[in-house]
Amino acid sequence: MPTIWPAPMRPAAAPTARSLRVAIGQLWLPVGDLDGNHRRIAETMAWAEEQGSDLLVLPELAITGYPPEDLVHHPDFVGDNLEVLTSLAELAEDCVTVVGFVDPVEGGPGPDSTPRYLANAVALLYRGEVRGRYHKVLLPNYGVFDERRYFAAGERFGGTWSLHGAEVGVLVCEDLWRADVPDAQTGDGAQIIVSANASPYHRGKQAEREHTVTDTARRCGLPVVYAAGVGGQDEVVFDGGSMIADASGRIVARTPAFTQSRLVTDVDLPAAPEPIRSTFTCRPQRAEERPRLGAPPVARVPEGPEEVYRALVEGVAAYVDRNEHRLALLGLSGGVDSALVALLAADALDVHRVHALTMPGPQTPSEATADALDLADRIGLRCDVVDVTDELERVASTLEAATDAGPMAGEVLLPSLRAVHLSALAERTDGIVLVTSNKTETALGYAGNGLVLPGGFAPLKDVPKTLVYDLCRWRNAVDGEAFGWRVGTGAIPQRIIDRQPSAQRTPTRPDREIPAGYEDVDAILEGFVERAASPDVLVEEGFDALVVERVVELVDRNERTRAQLPPGVKVTSRGFGRDRRLPLTHEYRAQVTPRGEERTDLGAAQLVGEELWFEG
Amino acid sequence: MPTIWPAPMRPAAAPTARSLRVAIGQLWLPVGDLDGNHRRIAETMAWAEEQGSDLLVLPELAITGYPPEDLVHHPDFVGDNLEVLTSLAELAEDCVTVVGFVDPVEGGPGPDSTPRYLANAVALLYRGEVRGRYHKVLLPNYGVFDERRYFAAGERFGGTWSLHGAEVGVLVCEDLWRADVPDAQTGDGAQIIVSANASPYHRGKQAEREHTVTDTARRCGLPVVYAAGVGGQDEVVFDGGSMIADASGRIVARTPAFTQSRLVTDVDLPAAPEPIRSTFTCRPQRAEERPRLGAPPVARVPEGPEEVYRALVEGVAAYVDRNEHRLALLGLSGGVDSALVALLAADALDVHRVHALTMPGPQTPSEATADALDLADRIGLRCDVVDVTDELERVASTLEAATDAGPMAGEVLLPSLRAVHLSALAERTDGIVLVTSNKTETALGYAGNGLVLPGGFAPLKDVPKTLVYDLCRWRNAVDGEAFGWRVGTGAIPQRIIDRQPSAQRTPTRPDREIPAGYEDVDAILEGFVERAASPDVLVEEGFDALVVERVVELVDRNERTRAQLPPGVKVTSRGFGRDRRLPLTHEYRAQVTPRGEERTDLGAAQLVGEELWFEG
Known about the structure:
2 copies of one chain form a homodimer. Chain A is of the alpha/beta class and about 625 residues long. Chain A is built from 18 helices and 20 strands.
């Protein structure tokens, strides 16, 4: 294998272009769909060529989709990905295409005893050939990311490419989030920084990205091109957000969120510094030969409940469709959680592909069933009534007779029996069950303990209860048509939104009672789970010590009940899933420090062992 | 924070000891049990002191248990771990204790944009103080390991400590699996290498460890001390295997597998080379003052089905007990899988803590129920008969009447209803459901698709069907008393072992038929999953191309049905779980290359892009 860096230094023609025509392909590139991704990328290359683009930038690992995870250990996968690369190179004409792929490398000693034989790479395709490659230097290994598991790190921070008369610095995603790589490329004479990205959505993520992009542009005094993809991949959603910042750090182009789109624009370049330290020229510039394009769109960034709702729609659509399910099935209880999931499914899939059951048991109030049917009617989806009272009593009495465990609790049997009905129906109809548990329940262990679970998808797994209400209110107020959905306004009956949640209304067992109002519980969860605030800090922030202790204890004790829930869409900065990996079994119990006692803080504890060396 | 390396060079007394009295504490150290681990370590320190030991070596991350995962991000956890370290240091007398802990470090630039503020460390405790620390250099980030997620790597490969007149090289687990660290310590004058380890069990793992230990001893010409822990932690089991190799690479001491144990022996040291490059002396030697200890035990290494069975027992015991379940519940079908799980549970927990149900449905043959009861009787555990025929028919008819999905299939409803009974009983009795699916079923997706799943534990999740038979035969032949179990020989009726498995006997649906005999399917799975052999290689190895293609397709398509199964015990080199992380949703389909076509192999494909740089 040839080494990319260090590369031979070559004398280069001084850069002369004043602008570069840059195209971005914000594509949907499903993981493992090598043939489909070949087609999507090829179409975009043809379009960029037609536009007279100098450069086309695609998302990170465009050929394989992101993240391919252990697929890269699949014996044929990397070879198949290289075949796609070769074939795309053959299609390349005068527009230089920056395309992500998995590149085999010589396995050198890595961070452990196992060499890595692969790099997270981009190739530069031009006139029928792969003409250059760059290996990602910074490999994220935190949050949802595991890149150190797979990849050898690229070793070179700087370097530029001379493309159509412009000095171009090319990098991949994480490389942009620390100063070293873009600064080194700037030092080596770059006139523009181009980044291929795969950045999973969470609330407010686009603002973080734009901060990084504009900050880099200002610091380096260069335009920055940021290309990202869209679509759901299990727990994560890629929301797009491709953009271009000019050399002053102003966003001058942005693609619409959550939507496949193409963008092409002429990017003004600052003068190149002399001397250029590493330059490789593909051909003379052509920027001056054509009329300048008009100003590109700067799409608005969705905010608040809208961005969350749209991420959920993308996540549900991807999981159901890509796994080839014909129908989505769910149980409607007359509560807000199932109402929201029904609406999400209808918006994601179309009402004809959603089939609901409402399954009253012995204590289900008739207005709950009526509200469920009213909701289904307003959305326009099918909802069958399945009364499970008889079955429930029969199962309970069989079990009571056969064992001596005493009376069976309806609150355990009822959801389990409902799950049996939904799962059986799913199996008969090539359907998938959408589980309606929200993040608050999941955190406290009320969704899982002692219940059977249907295989499926849990759209609200990372949506706290208070956010469920916000989403219902937002969706009720907007006409879906504006977003390409069939359902209009006001689909969720007000009675559903106003009804007190069952956990607060009639806690059938004291250990299932929500320890405080949802506002407080969700705020404590946000602090403990997302911010990793300690119980003491939460008490200092004004929350009741007993409530804090109870919430923290339930979160800690319920890792294993959460572990078996279906996947759901990550919408917060730390969801339960890839993002947060705790032992299912552990004896650690975080506690509020009793008044009067002092907790050793880390600053003090760090002094332990300052006497470092044995001195006899 | 003080920097450990580079350390000031100090003139040192030439080492004079000819032997070192080394103690190993092969302890059970549950993750997060800081108080309990404090007690266990303190007791072992007192014992080692009594034995006149110079050095006590404990497992990796002894204070926190291994692996703590995201517990280290828990706001108070690291501080609490340091408090335990300080308290243990106060107990230290003349025996130098090597104890693992999580050490805060200054966060420098890491492999990505997020600094790591922690190291995987060992401290050297002596006369009331933490007198030295070592930070693990190689951080495994493959298989079940994720250490790069948490830790900054130690930067120093070499260096030794002068302890009781001997030059000692101290390192942590992965550091031993590559030559750099032990070789650098040898070069710096070490007379003995000491390693603190946490090495998860799989079949044949002890032979791999011993190869590494003896190889290092021979290469370095030094004795090697290897300390490991025991006990189950979710999917992994630590099986012990602590040992000492002499300078010629012969194993001279070994603790019994799967058992907490202590070992103390006088280890002969080779002469120290001159000059010693980094030496820090705790105090003059004392080796000559006492009579030499007798030869230590070299415990036998369990092999074949025995080692797997014992690992499963440890895994079940740990998961059930540490999660504070009073009972283990399972369904007995009259088949081998449930028979084996019943016996495992009885051996792991005692028969009084196992409660079985046998739940005949409309087509269950009466001899299956009779065999289940016979098995329960021989083991001595309670088994109640719950006939679910009526319930099954009622659920089916309710669903058929309410929807138009057509007749409901018993093979979906029956296991789901059984799961409901077990889960409800678990909830009433503080029990946990043991799911009886084996690895072969799990691989092919027959355990999960369309079914509801009880929360619980799946002991056989990584045990292929052919190994299930081997385990049954082995366990039937041995008297449990030899291993401290209550059940004697012959507990599994021969009729259960002889009965043809249901998937082969009466495949009720063609898509649930096992594609070939279990011997072939398991061999293909071993090749594809454990060895990552490509379909083409498996065909070359002599397996039928259609069978290979079908098995591989089922494995690839069923990631998501496996993802929701309860955790199980890893017993192969690659289990379904932490070990193997595939996207739940992906479009990649590995295939056998049709005759006549040629697959681009990686060697050829690597040539793509050899023309590396744009040259204009």
